[in-house]
# Entry
Amino acid sequence: MTSLRQLVVLGALGAALVGCSGEDKPESNAVAKPAGCPSALKPEWQQLANRVGVPVYCPNWMPSPLDADINGQWNSSGPIVNRDKSFLVGFLWHEAGSGDVHVNFRGFPGKTAMPRCEDGKRSIPCFSDPRGSRKIGDKKVTVYTVSRDADQWHVTYLWRRNGTLYTVSEHVAPPLTFRKVVANLDRLVGGLELIEPAPSA
Amino acid sequence: MKLTRKQLLGGAAAGALGAAGIYELVDQLADSPQRAGALELPPEQHLLAGMKSFEHEGVEVIEPPLHHQVMTAKLRVRPRPSALRAARETLEASLRELERRYDLTPAGLAVTVAWGRPYFARYVPELAARHLPIDRRATTDARRPVSALLDARRFPSDPDDTILEANDVAILLRSDVREHVADGAQELFADTGDLFELTSIRKGFQGGGFAGGRSLPKAMATAAGVPGADLIPDTAQLFLGFTSTQTHTQGQSAIANFETLGFVDVRDGYFRGGTHMHLSHLDEDLEAWYLDFDFRERVDTTFRPRLEASDGAQTLAQRPEDAAGVAEVEDDFRRFGAIGHGSSIQPTSRLQMDIRGADGKLYRKGSAIPLRADFNTLDNPFFWTADPERDGFEEQPSAGIHFVTFNPSSDDFNRNRLAMDGVLPGGRTLPIPPRARAQGLNSVLRTTHRQNFLVPPRSRRSFPLSELLSS
# Structure
């Protein structure tokens, strides 16, 4: 049984952790930007939605220093669109000696099964070690702590909508910690705007 | 008055001996287990009385003491019979005083005094040449006498900068009560005058969580702000998420004694009842472990590829009858391209046949030989060091393990550790690059320091062999 003394200590510990300054302070405590995809970036994400034929999610917030400009300086991957219309859009800040901030957006149109990745000769789930699920807005998100391929060392948030599986992941690497990444993903996923493909697309 | 560097270091060391630092939380986060009462003192120094075992996830587990501390030192004693006699009497008096104060149980205080090769070489070289046990297997392989106590070596998966230490002595203190450990350290170092020049103080903890509450590793790592702390399972015994003290993986009774299995020739018997101790520090990259290996892979690499494990299990049975042999390890590697930590060392760490020990006890095939006494630490790499630059000391806590294990000899330890790197008994080496993912566990561990020690029997624990010097 937990003693009062233990509770006091644990409470103090918890307070100390919440009150930590620096990199572990969740950015989600900051003033939120207005909901919705930044208007300047919307055409790029609209173009992606048109190309893959399913709705895509455009973020209204990205962890510093990244933005969600698909044609911008931080874009690292794509958009890469495969034959089956599954896509990857990545954003990366990297500075030797300082670390990485790396966020990936994926979608698998028409598929809800766990995607498979190659590991040598093996085919393995691209995301494993689920760590519970959470409701963020209208999305029921499952958190995965082990990710593969372009998402290796990322924490991945995965959800499904209308027969399509979506993921957003962020790399756990200095200057970020696991805790900070989770806070970032909470905020990022909470600010996603669904961009429908244009009817004519 | 201006203090010299030596005085300053001495003062800092004395303060650090009893200081708790972050380990004060251990007492606040975990209750001391109920322990059986003390029995008669065994002739061995490395055996603990009053250990409690219980079932966890259907497997019998030994609950280790909560608090652990190792101090290493060089001797300030002059290499003369009279000085050694006085030193021996002083140390022995302190040890007896601690035995008077505390039972030899985790509820009391267990003290293990171990001596490094530098002590034997500097103080009693000729007597050591005559009395130190000889390793029979290593002697056969080398075709010349090989001591049971060798200098530590680097292994294939060790970094090039792993420090091979040369301390004269190491003292291990274990107790459920932090104040007992602090008192023991004070008695042995601060109150013995000028015998020792401390080189390091290493602290840590074990246990908690077996009753279902949050265990110490997660709570302590979280409190210390260690990267990846949030990823540790709530009730894990070790930072890496599994239990290491199940009864079947621990050398039982006197199996790790020099003389028990016949691996070692104790010659005239001076060191009968003694054993060998390896001490190392391993830094653990928790984020790499939990973000790059999923649960299935962690089981595969910690134990054995495809070992049956329910999701989230922490204590996986490692029964004697299931111990892997060389053929199984080779087969695993052929099929999966990887080896498990547990299974890879079993061909060397488990008995390959029934053996009637020198103590008259029958040790069954598959029995574990090493007696592990390792503990979790947040030291980086030590709680205190006399040489912070050399040791790479940092204030920022880091998850790691002070690896303490008792084996019948250095060679026996080396065989086990080499097997972890795919060097199998018989000399075959599996083609696994050092620290490759196929070595799993090794890829997230970084060994910072190593040293081997000899643990004399209790009756000869203080400056062994020095009483045989003619004055």
